[in-house]
Amino acid sequence: MQVIDTLSHASGSRTLPKGHRWVVVDVETSGLRAYAHRVLSVAALVLREDGSVEREYSTLVDPGCDPGPVHVHRLTRERLAGAPRFEQIAGELAEVLDGGTIVAHNAAFDYGFLDAEFRRTGTEIPVKQRLCTLALSRRLELDVADHKLSTLAAHWQVQQLLEHDAYDDARVLSEVFVRSASLAESLQLPLPVVDCLSRRSAYPDSVPRVPCEWKNPGRLSLDVGLVQGMKVVITGHTTTPRVPLADRMTDAGLDVMNSVSRQTSVVVCNDPGVQTGKIRKAMSEGIPVVTERQLEDMLTRVLPGEPKTRPVVEVAAPPAEPVIEPPPQPETAESVAPSLPERMLTGQKPKLWQGRRVLLLGGTHLDAVLMRSRLVQLGARPSLNLTAAVTDVLMLEGGDSDRRMPRISARELPVLTKTDVSAAVEKGVVPSHMRIESRISAPALARGEVIDLPARKMSWTVNIAWRAETDDFDVDVVAFLLGEDEKVDSDDDFVFYNNPTAEDGAIELSIDGSSEQSVRLDLAALPDECARIAIAAAIDGERTFGELGAVSVSVDGEDGTAATFVLDAGTTERTMVLTEIYRRSGKWRLRAVGQGYDDDLGGLVALYDVDVEKGN
After folding, report:
1. In this structure, are residues 591 and 449 in contact, taking their beta carbons and an 8 Å threshold?
2. Which residue, 52, 263, 468, 529, is most buried by CB atoms nearer than 10 A?
3. What are phi and psi of 177, to 5 degrees?
4. Is the pTM of the predicted complex or chain greater than 0.85?
């Protein structure tokens, strides 16, 4: 199998893309949530155009709190004693970061913590753009088992001296970034730079979600009072500002939510007569409503709750072949598209092209859809970009004029035709340049196919990507936590850029690049009433999926990829359900959906019973 020699880009002259002041950063923290945890150490390296370090900054930080997972970062209270507080380093750090484009591994995490720390000092982080090397590694499709920093360091032959040390991680990452950027330039792939300010929350008075360690004991009884774990919602005007009031309830062990659901224990409202959306929902569900004064009185004697335990879900090993199930359709009327046809895998030709990555050039939209379907049938994975993993090029009509042809010729990539594909599908012909013993790769699913997720694997990341050159499209990836009725229980179960986490962090959205977004899942942390997670994408404005082109989905675990699929049947649709992960007979299953709708995002969320009118 012929793949690009990525290590050839580790030596020789290097020039970073112009127009950016690249600053590589890394932080070690006391936890995972920027609004609740603190920075313990920070390192920042300013890079010259040739990739060398022009300026560096590194320091420990006294967080004024428990340092958290010492077994990971080794930063004990004793080591942090005497270190400066963040407010004491903010000025100098701001000078280093000023006007820079932050480069970090999982950049949303590092940026989020620094942003939160600067805000606590009453200032703002002087950074408007960031680049995630995780997203860059995925965009390049490097031949690695996973995209951890240690794995990438080994791939690029960069020596890692002390893992989870902010300075050493930043040093290693700077080398990884320089080599990766060089490879991207050779492939004519744009770097995944994103605007840090384009997705700030637009809803005022929203209460930051803080994980609650107590089980929900149910509805409030005025005779008993508050119990730790109760879900509380605030609506309307309060004497104490909403966020400080929520902080007091959180400190008392209550679970403060932003939306009313059937699981809500009590709603706090000084004037129920205002009839906000939350009050109407509470009245329809029979949820108690108390005043702020009643709440203050009950907060003096909150009863202890029952600690949460993480459920263990017994699941079976995945079947040898994917199973086909027609995806269920949302229970609406005329707006719902017809069901996908059921297809059986019996009699399917052997997957002769297993492990091949094929880039399509030219052709009409329908030609490309048909060819990608046949490639998947053969076991190959269609690529959306010219990446390090591409092994073959499928040339359709007009493809020889593609601007990437000089790079393809320089790499001496084999060129296939429609005749080659037809011969393989119909007669089992393997082109002479292909080795039958191709490398093992994750199954490439067809639209509608279903697999069981591997047993006891609970942490997954659903990575969604589209062609890197289509950065003029504003695409939003969203997720819905659904019950058995295929509806959300509350608006908090709708995950999008203004509500990026749900269920105490069990579901988390990350905007990793200009054409990459991810949804991270902890299936073990989901409540029993969550039967299904639907992940969808919406295009803002009047653009359609026919214009956007194919969308790639990869479902990755800590030690490998469970499945990949490419959805390219879109035409006039503006929203599309990409995939579903759901419970069935004690198993977690994954379906490649690809169900599109002509409605905008507002129409899509209404299908799942999300209230698009925000009450206060």
Report:
1. yes
2. 468
3. -65, -45
4. no
Contact (CB, 8 A) for 184 and 191 = yes
Q: How far apart are CA 413 and CA 407, in angstroms?
A: 9
Tokens standing for 465? 């990507």
Q: How far apart are CA 450 and CA 579, in angstroms?
A: 10
| Strands of 506-607, DSSP E | 507-513, 516-522, 532-539, 551-557, 560-567, 575-584, 587-597
Residues of the chain with pLDDT under 70: 1-13, 198-206, 208-209, 309-350, 435-441, 471, 504, 612-616
Dihedral pair phi/psi, residue 374, rounded to 5°: -70, -35
Q: DSSP letter at 573?
A: -
Residue 227 is classified by DSSP as B
Whether 25 and 103 have beta carbons less than 8 Å apart is answered as: yes
How many C-alpha atoms does 409 have within 13 Å on its Cβ side? 8
Contact 511, 196 (CB under 8 A): no
Is residue 389 within 8 Å of residue 141, measured between CB atoms? Answer: yes
d(CA 379, CA 373): 10
- Could you give the CA distance from residue 65 to residue 3 in angstroms, rounded to a whole number? 49
User: Strand 587-597 and strand 501-502: pairing?
Assistant: unpaired
Task: Show the tokens assigned to 601.
Answer: 């995002």
Rounded to 5°, the CA angle 455-461-463 comes to 130
Q: Closest Cα partner for 127 from 83, 72, 193?
A: 193
Q: How far apart are CA 148 and CA 133, in angstroms?
A: 10
Q: Determine the Cα–Cα distance for residues 460 and 109; give it in Å rounded to an integer.
A: 17
Ordered DSSP codes for 497-512: TTB-EETTTTEEEEEE
pLDDT tens for residues 26-73? 999 998 878 778 999 999 999 999 999 999 999 999 998 888 888 888
* Token duo for residue 484: 């058995």
Phi/psi at 173 (5° precision):
-65, -35
Q: Which helix (H) or strand (E) holds 152?
A: helix 149-155
C-alpha to C-alpha distance for 484 and 497, rounded to whole angstroms:
25
Question: How many whole angstroms separate alpha carbon 153 and alpha carbon 176?
Answer: 6
- At 92 the three-state DSSP class reads helix
Alpha-carbon span 107 to 177, nearest angstrom: 13
Q: Of 186, 9, 174, give the one whose Cα is nearest residue 103.
A: 174
Buried b (16+ CB within 10 A) or exposed e, 207-217: bbbbbbebbbb
CB 44 within 8 A of CB 174: no
Distance CA 19, CA 183 (A): 18
At 451-482, the pLDDT tens digits run: 999 878 889 999 999 998 776 788 999 999 99
- Cβ atoms of 130 and 103 closer than 8 Å: yes
Strands 323-324 and 449-452: antiparallel
Closest CA relative to residue 496, chosen from 507, 485, 488, 487: 507
